[in-house]
Design goal:
serine protease; transmembrane; serine-type endopeptidase activity; 24% strand; Thrombin, subunit H; elongated; 31% helix; membrane; 342 residues; alpha+beta; six-stranded antiparallel barrel
Length: 342
């Protein structure tokens, strides 16, 4: 095996090389800008010399892969005209992926929209119908069908000028615990309502039909009759209702009442007198009427055919014979309580 340090001994010196004809010169030695790319370290010389001399290597000197690589016949080794660069391959794959996505997008845009199948249409109709039914059921749960009917009746009654004027005297009584109905009985701001509407408070907020607000003091309270009287602060010229001198209605007589049920305001409705009945907690009998009374109607004025107040709505009752009925305290109780508390 030759000495690596003498591997160029057969080459002539550079000066002697230039004396030779150009066609006989070594092309590498004749290149002034030649730069040797591979730098071999001393430990590599043994391998280099073996390759240079064409010797066959033992497996003990190289691992199995290197052994077969170096001893494989030259005509069987794959020849690559251009070595693959990993970065070039990655760029090529990215370009192919971008082209594929662009082609897919173009096909999607050009393709006509698919018409929904019969099954899809049927499913949409079923879901829509279920949503409508569910919404309707939710509304009925909040407002029973009879409660929806009373809004229609209120709209019809409100066409009457008398009822329109009466609604202006009906107010909302607001406390931290909730709200109820009341009505003005004097131009300077005397208001009548139920005791349970203002119970626990000496001063409450009053909202008129035109949304004006003012404070009022509780000046009279009669728990045994569920009545209370309020006085507004420095108010005058308020629309008011007239109290009847005494309760005088008979069974079957028509009545009208106006209140703020189920979060509505100024709802007018009508009913018919049934008759007196005693209830627990009140000293005197109250009057039953066949009428749609709901939460929020407490404190509503009950009017006779002449537009005078004959009572105050305070509750409902599930009667064994009459079913669900409204209850109102007759105006006579106010007069009686005032006389007894003079």
């Amino acid at each position: 095996m030759s000495n690596p340090n003498d591997r160029h001994d057969d080459y002539p010196d550079r000066e002697d090389e230039r004396k030779l004809p150009r066609e006989e010169r070594d092309p590498i030695q004749d290149t002034d800008d030649y730069i040797e790319e591979d730098v071999w370290e001393p430990d590599d010389w043994v391998v280099w010399d073996a390759i240079a001399e064409g010797d066959v290597l033992d497996e003990e000197e190289l691992d199995e892969d290197e052994f077969h690589e170096y001893n494989e016949p030259a005509d069987r080794k794959p020849v690559s005209e251009e070595p693959e660069d990993p970065e070039d391959e990655e760029i090529r794959l990215l370009v192919l992926e971008a082209q594929r996505e662009a082609l897919l997008k173009e096909r999607t845009e050009e393709a006509p929209p698919r018409r929904p199948s019969f099954g899809t249409k049927a499913m949409i109709w079923i879901i829509s119908l279920m949503m409508v039914v569910s919404t309707f059921a939710f509304v009925l749960e909040l407002f029973p069908l009879s409660a929806v009917d009373f809004l229609r009746t209120s709209s019809q009654l409100s066409q009457q000028e008398t009822v329109q004027a009466q609604k202006e005297s009906v107010v909302s009584i607001v406390t931290p615990d909730g709200s109820g109905t009341g009505f003005v009985i004097s131009e300077d701001g005397t208001i009548l309502t139920n005791h349970h509407v203002i119970e626990g408070y000496d001063r409450v907020s009053v909202v008129l039909s035109d949304d004006r607000r003012f404070m009022a003091d509780v000046t009279e309270s009669y728990p045994e009759s569920d009545m209370a009287v309020l006085e507004a602060d420095d108010e005058s010229g308020l629309p008011s209702l007239e109290l009847a001198d005494a309760y005088h209605l008979q069974e079957g007589d028509p009545v009208t009442f106006i209140g703020n049920p189920l979060s509505f305001r100024g709802v007018a409705n009508k009913g018919n007198v049934i008759g007196p009945i005693r209830v627990n907690g009140l000293e005197e009998p109250v009057i039953m009427m066949e009428a749609p009374v709901y939460r929020g109607n407490s404190g509503s004025p009950v009017l006779d055919s002449d537009g005078r107040v004959v009572g105050i709505v305070f509750a409902t009752l599930n009667h064994e014979e009459e079913g669900t009925v409204g209850l109102f305290v007759p105006v006579d109780e106010l007069y009686r309580q005032r006389l007894e508390n003079q």
